[in-house]
Amino acid sequence: MELKNVEKQEKSIVELTIAVSADELEAGKQAAFKKNRNKITVPGFRKGKAPRHLIEKLYGEGVFFEDAVNACYPDAYDKAVAEAGIKPVGMGDIEMKEIPEEGGFVFVAKVPVEPEVTLGEYKGLTAEKDEVKVLVADVKAELERMAQRVARTETVERAAKDGDTVVIDFEGFVDGAAFEGGKGENYSLTLGSGSFIPGFEDQLVGAKAGDELDVNVSFPEEYHAEELKGKPAVFKCKVHTVQETVMPKIDDEFAKDVSESCETLDDLKKELKDKLTETRQQEVDHNFEEQLLDALVGGMQADIPEAMFEAQTDNIVQDFAYRMQMQGMGIEQYVQMNGMDMASFRKLFRDQAERQVKVRLALQKIAEQEHIEIDDATLEEEYGKMAENYGLEVEKVKKAVAADALRSDLRLTKALDLVKETAKAKKKAKKKADAEGSEEQA
Q: Is residue 434 predicted with pLDDT exceeding 80?
């Protein structure tokens, strides 16, 4: 192999011109001959016994050329990449250029490489950060949600009202014809929940068990089924039962029932306040971090190759497919159910993939500039934490997570910590309504 030329192009593509010698090509042809000779028929010879020169005479001298090229170029490509000192981030596009008279061949590989990154300021960045508050009304609302979850229903002999649950059979018709997905039996519908299209639940208010009625509605213009968008429909309904929700009394006994650690209602209120405070603090910290990353990426300059975005999109789609599989659904089925093809499905994740690539490149550059390294002790400590979190032995975690990959992720985490530790938080400007509507904190 001879690396004849190295040329940098746009979008962090490096073009390598690579020559494979006649001797290397000949070795490739011989390997192709040995691999394929049992498949080739030559009159007067049993399969696999005909000499190579007779096969080439019968089928042409180029009979083994394509297989020989395919055998030669991967090794030549790898050696050329190493000699050029580049770091590929995807497979190169290969193009045959010329076949010299003396044998051998020349090909061009356009290789996407990790881009050169120039950062703007990454220390002392400023971002908005909300003050975490939990109001009395917030705790009260959470108590009511908990009560709703443990509430019981009782069948009543009266007309249904908003908030009741009705058990119904229904079948929908458009232009006099039933449509797919418009039928249900013994369906429990809570009136006022907004579960069905606008207007449906309102028309069941006042109905009693045993009533049969027509519900007239129109599908929204933005409805997911194209054939039903904006169409008027009639749903023939039969009411089986009307049930009212009986809420529990929110007192000390309620607190004992819904919490293993609380003996009184005051204990439960404190527990809820602490949990809400923790959750909101996490949200505030996350939003602050996202603003800092936006500023970091916004000040970065890098000519990023398309291959990096495509590879990250692949990762996101594969992760999504894995989660769908855990729920018993294949990714192809999910895509079809949502009226998409795989290309349009991938586009949903394009912006996310681009941002993730840019963030990673920026943090890698910070780690490089700040000489951030992860020593063996830190690596072992992280393996220990992962083992504890997943309930596995450390050695099993080490087999599942490569040390180099974990070390790289920890470098990025330290780089992000540096950005956050040196950042400045400013209070978010209060809206007029917020300023006037302050309430006693819990």
A: no
Same structural domain, 195 and 232: yes
| Closest-CA residue to 88 (of 116, 115, 113) | 113
Contacts 24+ apart (CB under 8 A), 74-82: 75/1, 76/1, 76/18, 76/20, 76/24, 76/107, 77/16, 77/18, 77/109, 79/1, 79/3, 80/1, 80/3, 80/16, 80/18, 80/109, 81/16, 81/111
Kind and range of the H or E element at 326? Answer: helix 306-326
234, 360: one domain:
no
Which tens digits make up the pLDDT trace of 41-56? 888 888 888 888 888 8
- Mean of pLDDT values over 292-321: 95
**Are 240 and 268 within one domain?**
no
- Which tokens in the block code for residue 420? 């956050």
Distance separating alpha carbons of residues 159 and 166, to the nearest angstrom: 10
Overall average pLDDT of the 215-226 stretch: 90
> What CATH number should be reported for the domain holding residue 357?
1.10.3120.10
The Cα 30–Cα 36 span in angstroms is 10
Both structure tokens of 384: 């220990």
Residues 83 and 16 in one domain: yes
For residue 60, pLDDT over 90 is answered with no
Closest CA to 363 of 29, 136, 119: 119
d(CA 106, CA 338): 47
> Are 233 and 269 in the same domain?
no
- Dig out the tokens for 31 from the structure: 């390997």
Where a domain ends, among 246, 279, 303? 246
For residue 69, give the CATH number of its domain: 3.30.70.1050
Helix axes 403-422 and 265-298, enclosed angle (nearest 10): 90
Q: Which residues of 138-155 are buried (b: 16+ CB within 10 A; e: fewer)?
A: bbeebbeebbeeeeeeee
Q: How many domains does the chain divide into? A: 3
Position 431 in a domain: no
